[in-house]
Automatic annotation (TrEMBL):
<protein>
    <submittedName>
        <fullName>Uncharacterized protein</fullName>
    </submittedName>
</protein>
<dbReference type="Pfam" id="PF14388">
    <property type="entry name" value="DUF4419"/>
</dbReference>
<dbReference type="InterPro" id="IPR025533">
    <property type="entry name" value="DUF4419"/>
</dbReference>
Length: 397
């Protein structure tokens, strides 16, 4: 059963951040460049009903921003194993794409890019592209060297949904995009549409870290930073959580304002910001005194199990989602599309709308939106190549 820990005595504050009501608005706020490059949203895991009945706030990184906001602004926080696993996978995604040629022999036997094609029945307006993404993971597995690669990536936790499996599938495709091109060929006919946490889940994630050490020094350091964090996630399930565990949750992060200069985020949350979206490491071992100018004291420097957690500029927080181009042959007409997947929003609920353990923490029932959690999912849009080229020239993307 879930573990709920009361970290502080103060009451939860209301979540007042922007609510969006459509996939178009979500994309515009979560990723401006992708929105500017899109013609129309083809499909998304987030339904119209979900927008109407939930409070969804778009952000660039759902997990990091939710944890950062909950800690900084006193909101209740819900975290699923899937949220943490996606945060880790996306960081590795950036690293592998940045070091694709160095790692080529680790993953594949071929040179250049190999096209992977899935043929199915339907049209671009009726086909369920989540099925395409999940089928593609099996095709990918047949074309990579590691026999356990797909099983390692795909979440199988007690909280995992079909949407989570699709999200992981698209992240897997994005991670391998330097070695493969992905094509979905649709033909006429009746479309086939598939609609559909426990302590062990977190121990499962911890065990999966061992795989990273075969990818190089930086992934090994990344895994080293995550192990102390995950051990304490697991310890939260203890019948009587220790004071050490409570202290851990009290040190998620701290915000240091740099005045007219950059501001920084410290704490163990920075472990999930190891690389930027270009695969460049943000992890810098520095003397804690270097951050005294923003008010950070030497004793504020976090060390867990011998691993040091250094501040990250809040402006450098990497995206919480990955993207991959997909060519769609819709009964002879070609569409150049892009699939996005990961954690790109925060969903707000009231204490009365969540589990009984959280209700017990509330002094009285209230319908204010005081609880937030990362929202993972995926969406697909048709690319506007002219706008993409203009953005590349303007921003050097």
């Amino acid at each position: 059963m879930p573990a709920t820990l009361k970290v502080a005595e103060h009451p939860a504050n209301a979540w007042n951040s922007k609510k969006v009501s459509s996939n178009e608005d979500l994309l515009a706020w979560a990723s401006y460049n992708d929105h500017q490059s899109s013609k129309w949203i083809i499909q998304s895991s987030i339904s119209r009903d979900q927008y109407e009945n939930s409070h969804i706030t778009p952000v660039d990184n759902g997990f990091v921003r939710a944890a950062f906001s909950a800690y900084s602004n006193h909101h209740q926080l819900i975290i699923r194993p899937d949220d943490v696993w996606f945060a880790m996978l996306l960081q590795i995604n950036f690293y592998i794409n940045a070091h694709a040629e160095e790692l080529r022999d680790h993953f594949v036997s071929h040179q250049g890019k190999k096209e992977l094609l899935i043929v199915d029945v339907g049209t671009i307006g009726s086909y369920d592209f989540s099925v395409f993404a999940r089928r593609m993971t099996h095709l990918l597995q047949e074309n990579v060297k590691d026999p356990d690669f797909r099983d390692w990536i795909m979440p199988t936790f007690s909280t995992t949904t079909v949407i989570d499996r699709t999200t992981a599938a698209i992240i897997m495709m994005s991670t391998m995009q330097s070695y493969f091109d992905f094509t979905c060929c649709l033909t006429c006919g009746i479309p086939s549409v598939t609609l559909l946490g426990e302590r062990d889940d977190w121990e499962d994630i911890l065990q999966r870290l061992d795989k990273l050490e075969g990818l190089g020094d930086e992934p090994t350091t990344f895994a080293g930073l995550l192990r102390p964090v995950l051990r304490r996630f697991i310890a939260t399930f203890d019948p009587e959580p220790s004071e050490t565990t409570r202290e851990f949750w009290a040190k998620i992060t701290h915000h240091y304002s740099g005045g007219s200069g950059p501001s920084y985020m410290s704490g163990w949350l920075t472990a999930f910001c190891f690389w930027d979206d270009k695969g460049k490491s943000l992890y810098k071992q520095q003397d804690p005194k270097n951050f005294e100018w923003v008010g950070m004291k030497a004793e504020d420097h976090l060390v867990m199990d011998g691993m040091s957690y250094f501040p990250v500029e809040t402006g450098d927080i990497p995206p919480g989602f990955a993207a991959v181009p997909v060519k769609v042959d819709d009964n002879g007409k070609e569409y150049y599309t892009k699939m996005l997947a990961g954690s790109f929003a925060i969903e707000a609920t009231s204490t009365t709308g969540v589990c009984a353990q959280l209700k017990a923490l509330a002094e009285e029932k209230s319908e204010i939106l005081d609880t937030i959690q990362p929202l993972s999912g995926w969406l697909m849009y048709e690319r506007d190549e002219e706008k993409e080229k203009a953005l590349q020239e303007l921003y050097g993307l």
